[in-house]
Specification:
Polyamine Oxidase, Chain A, domain 2; 5-stranded parallel beta sheet; alpha/beta; 13 helices; 3 domains; 7-stranded mixed beta sheet; 19 strands; FAD/NAD(P)-binding domain; single chain
């Protein structure tokens, strides 16, 4: 069987690999000039760095197994993470139960409430019962206003901006599950969280994956955007692509898998029935807007710093070199300044250099010694469709991987549920949809 795949991110590449291993021929078309989609990298200090910070949790078994299968297991590092909250002019460590006890911005009662509610969610298995609730209301009701205002409210705003109050409770449940899974079971649950990173960067994982797809008879074409999906008699039969010379070329396939965001998909296949399109349109996305500073000195000792201070115009500071060693990037210190924004946000529309200027004065609040002379280089990336906003009662609205058009399949991050999107789930989904395609073909 010949399968045409749109997108060389984690889902498309995992599907192509699975199909190749089963003896089918997968051809991947990617509009960008690089592999990896949202987990792609760029060059910094002689190393490769993800456009948006990336790590793995110990529960991310699908991608970790894939990394091992590709022979990159020895490159996987599991590193104790340092997580903090910046609140009221101070950085608080937020990793161990002892850190929670020392977290004085919350009253003693609220600290216990936070601990108890976290434990409750962690042990709660039936996430479907949480589906009718939005996270912000549930947290306020059960953990209280204090906990919401200081800890989890800023986390929700950090991830979802103005849409913080639409997010369904299963998203929050999923976050607690993955973060605690990364600490181990039982007494080990009291340990520090360990996060994983493939030390050759995610780019190496995608490159080896591409090699293996090629060896199995598949193909990966970069800088080759798909313009439309060919549909004949209610069945997908091919892809119209723009080749490297800018010519429109049509290729025939037995089945087509699209891994594009939901808003792109109907543009490629206008004959998609309206009820399916309606499901796709129910989910909005936020873009990740990242300013990346290459610094002479570290800003802090924390890898992941949540900013719970609304006078600061960014929501997270992720210092990559407090996670992996600066020697990976020529001895430089790497800091992501992160925001998730929609198109109506002034910060989303700001020129990159203006955004940098907007951010710089606030870095002194985190470290008063910070000086702009520390900045040796800076980079700006806007990752579209970075975070789908998944609301309450979503399972009834989840678009099926098998679309109403025969031989046409969709696998994108809006179909990852109840977990939050992540490379692991895209790999799992890619393999799953490859299985569906093979089942349907017999
Ligand atoms: C800032 C940020 C931080 C993140 N942090 C983590 C993390 O720490 N750990 C983790 O596991 N995950 C993380 N993620 C999420 C993870 O990167 C994604 O969930 C995952 O990579 C999505 O893979 P995908 O294949 O489903 O989609 P994508 O990566 O979006 O791939 C889809 C591909 O389709 C291509 N495409 C679209 N339209 C066309 C067209 N018409 N023709 C051809 N190609 C097309 C796109 O260019 C893209 O390459 C993060 C994401 C972001 C943005």
């Amino acid at each position: 069987m010949r399968v045409g795949i749109i997108g060389a991110g984690a889902a498309g590449m995992a599907a192509a690999f699975a199909l190749g291993k089963a003896g089918h021929q997968a051809t991947v078309y990617e509009g960008a000039s690089f592999l990896g989609g949202q987990a792609s990298t760029f060059d910094v200090g002689g190393g490769r760095l993800e456009r948006g910070y990336h790590h793995l949790f110990t529960s991310d078994t699908d991608i970790v197994d894939l990394i091992h299968e590709l022979g990159l297991g020895p490159k996987m590092a599991w590193i104790e993470s340092t997580v903090g909250i910046f609140y009221d002019g101070k950085i608080y460590n937020f990793v161990t139960p002892a850190d929670l006890l020392r977290f004085t911005p919350l009253s003693l009662i609220d600290r216990f409430r936070l601990g108890l509610v976290t434990l409750y969610i962690r042990r709660y298995k039936d996430w479907r019962k949480l589906e009718p609730f939005v996270a912000s209301e549930w947290i306020r009701k059960y953990a209280g206003k204090g906990v919401y205002d200081v800890v989890w409210g800023p986390l929700l705003r950090g991830k979802f901006g103005a849409h913080y109050d639409k997010v369904g409770m299963p998203w929050f449940w999923g976050k607690i599950q993955t973060r605690f899974a990364s600490r181990g079971k039982g007494l080990k649950g009291m340990q520090r969280e360990r996060l994983g990173y493939p030390m050759g960067s995610f780019a190496e994982v995608f490159e080896v994956l591409e090699q293996r797809i090629n060896e199995l008879g598949g193909e990966v074409h970069l800088s080759t955007p798909v313009r439309s999906i060919v549909v004949e008699d209610g069945r997908a039969t091919g892809l119209e692509v723009l080749d490297s010379g800018g010519n429109s070329v049509t290729h025939s396939f037995d089945a087509v898998l699209s891994t594009t965001p939901s808003y792109v998909f109907p543009r490629l296949v206008p004959s998609l029935p309206q009820d399916y399109v309606d499901k796709l349109q129910r989910v909005d996305y936020l873009a990740a807007v990242l300013v990346i500073l290459v610094l002479k000195e570290p800003l802090s000792k924390i890898y992941w710093l949540n900013i719970a201070d609304r006078s600061i115009p960014f929501v997270g500071l992720i210092e990559q070199t407090n996670f992996v060693d600066p020697s990976m990037y020529g001895g430089k210190h790497i800091l992501y300044i992160s925001n998730y924004l929609d198109e109506s946000s002034p910060l989303f529309n700001m020129k990159d250099s203006d955004l940098l200027e907007e951010y710089i004065p606030h870095l002194k609040k985190i470290n008063p010694r910070f000086d702009r002379s520390w900045i040796e280089e800076w980079h700006y990336h806007k990752v579209a469709a970075a975070q789908p906003i998944i609301g309450a009662n979503y399972s009834a609205q989840l678009p099926d991987h098998r679309t109403p058009i025969k031989s046409l399949y969709l696998a994108n991050t809006t179909q990852v549920y109840p977990e939050d999107r992540g490379t692991n789930y895209s790999v799992r989904m890619g393999k799953h949809v490859a299985d569906l395609i093979m089942q349907d073909f017999v």
